[in-house]
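Exercise (ungraded).
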Amino acid sequence: MTAPAATGAPRLGGRGRSVRYRLNAWLPVLATCVILVLMLGAGQAVFGDFVSPRLLSSLFDNNPFLIVLAVGMTFVILTGGIDLSVGSVIAFSGLLGAQLFAAGWPAAAVLPLMVLSGTLIGAVVGVMVAFFDIQPFIASLAGMFLARGLAYVTSLKALPIHNDALNWLLGTSWGVGDWTTTPGVLLSLLLVAIAFWVFHYTRFGRTVYAVGGNEQSARLMGLAVTRTVFLVYLISGTCAGIAGVLFASYTQSGNPLAGLGMELQAIAAVVIGGTILTGGSGYVIGSLFGVLVYGLIQISITYMSVDSWWTYIVIGVMLLLFVVFQRAIAARRRR
Amino acid sequence: MPSTVVAELRDITIAFPGVKALDGVDLVLRAGEIHALMGENGAGKSTLIKALTGVYAIDSGTVEVGGRPRRFSGTADAQAAGIATVYQEVNLCTNLSVGENVMLGREVRGRLGIDWSATHRAARTALELLGLQIDTRTSLSSHSIAVQQLIAIARATVLESAVLVLDEPTSSLDRSEVEQLFAVVRRMRDTGVAVLFVTHFLDQVYELCDRITVLRNGRRVGEFPTAELPRRELVSTMLGRELARLEAIEDRALAVGAADSTVPVLRVEDLGRKGVIAGASLELRPGEIVGLAGLLGSGRTELARLLYGADRPDAGHAEVHGRPARLSSPRAALAHRIAFSSEDRRSEGIIPDLSVRENLVLAVQAQRGWARPLSRTQQDAIVERYMTSLGVQPPMPARSSATCRAATSRRCSWAAGSPRIPSSSSWTSPPAASTSVRRRRSSVRSRTSRPAASRCCSSRRSSRRSCASRSASTCCKTGISSPKSSTRRTSTWMTSSP
């Protein structure tokens, strides 16, 4: 119980310490990468010619909409929030598109409107969370029902979409040999890159981290907390609108049942990607890897030709492992 | 430097449900001047600061900054008007790097967004001005609280504000860190910044400040040039009581504490917990008030928690009245009538959603067990007794304790249970801290190593505050009720007879 002796001017933190800090922050993302590689290795060992350009391409090709959803979700989760509305937005945005295309509207008008429909739902959730201080869970739950209801109002049954511009997004295949990709996939990767830049090279992005780290402090530091919280839901909604476009292109239809539970897949991908649900820690790149892990599990299940429901079991186990892993890292950091 | 008024608060009134926290208070801050804001706990210092920095909305009165009337709707507004604040608790983001915390919202931007190397360079410059050589790319959480406090101050300097508010910035700093801070504050003063300095260390006020505003019970007592207000007068101005009366109390208290022959009420030997505190020994005799001194993080809070069983000790043993006792949980400690008043009373001391009355009787009821509920009459008696003896303001037992001011909720958290040994951890302020009085006490029982720089956590302190601030004659006699008077459970250490 003696007070530490007074030292002179404190000299703190060497080079090693800052490297270790950044390594610690990236550790969950690295872990996701390692798991991805291990899974690929295990698949190769079990199935023989598992890892191929075709497989790696299809990892992206199957889930561009999930990547986009995960990008938006990363914004929300980094502030410590959650957005449950995004899955329903996919249905609403898809059906809105289907109806407008059926009415003969041009793609140049329909596609932006589909995206904006998501922005709108995001704005509603954002206003509730940021300005009325409603818990994100409840606010976005309301947004989820709202969007799903709007989808049913738009159409009670699935509508096919025949539009070249929409088909082009995921229907075109560019590639060299077996390496293929689609404009939609490139769009989703572009969004990941933009999100990374926003997170790490803009004041808004840093405020997102600050709010997730300690909202009270962020407020007292004079940061625009309310605006930032509103904006992350707006971004998430917009991403959901874009994902709706991609999903409509993927299925070439609008369906009131589309995107059921997809918000939870997005959350799972973000968490597997190393972002902590309480906010303030994580990287959007991790969310991309999270989606890839998710996609790889899907493909492996198909390879094993067992019931596709096994995907959920594996994802569930994976999620548990990751949450425990994050706790362990957090505990280590505290020490 | 001519004393131009930078910020002026006039006739500020802020009312919380049932109580006026501030009642027509004026405060004038002048460029190039360091202004101390003094007053005991609950006098309204923090409320006034929050009014100035835009955290609280003002009910009536005006705020003028730079000659223009302002109405702040938040801290961002106040910062934009040039008011930077360093709070007592470090308000930074532990998940970000040191440099980011200094520069957050003020990052240097290039063509491609934030220019990180320039940002960190600017942060390093600000930190070096404070005498801190830190790799700004390290995590904030890897630094001690004291360093974090300096980082918060560095942040305030980056904002280049006209007014710098320092709300007890020194409470977690050691002597040399305080020196560095003072040097920086003086430098800022010389460049024409108006500094508002809140502290409980009178030495620091006289060392640093040019002018003093004293608050008492939400009212301004007056504004004095430091040179014209001797220390003793400052203390009695703060308390509204004659110093001589206070000293008389001290003498009596000393007489009780001096009897070393009695069996200690509480004795612990080598009490420790892995990774928290290495074996500490302590003796508490009847009528004694023992201070635990040390800097933030030195283990005072932790030891207090161990004594109370809030954390489980994994080494050492304890004796209550000479008999071995296992203080393994708060419940066990309470059974030995050891009470604890947390430094973080809002989350650890009270249950904010319950009323003042419910909080007061909670621990008593818990000890009786749910099968024997206290009758309404008994509850009323308990509540009545504590509300008067602790001076809970306003005397409204039905009020939700969440709406109470800090000082009030502290008083509520106190009363719970029937403490024989209040083991209280850092109560930030000894408003009655007449340093002369304090020094005398520490010379008798010299457990306080550095009274000036250290924040003594203590029951000593806390009881002094209550002694001084209200009917002193009852509580000064003994801090601890004598073993013989094993009276009803509802007797407090404050009111029971020796």
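Further reading is listed at the end of the chapter. For now, observe: Confidence is low (pLDDT under 50) at residues 412-420, 422-498 of chain B. Chain B has two domains: 5-231, 246-475.
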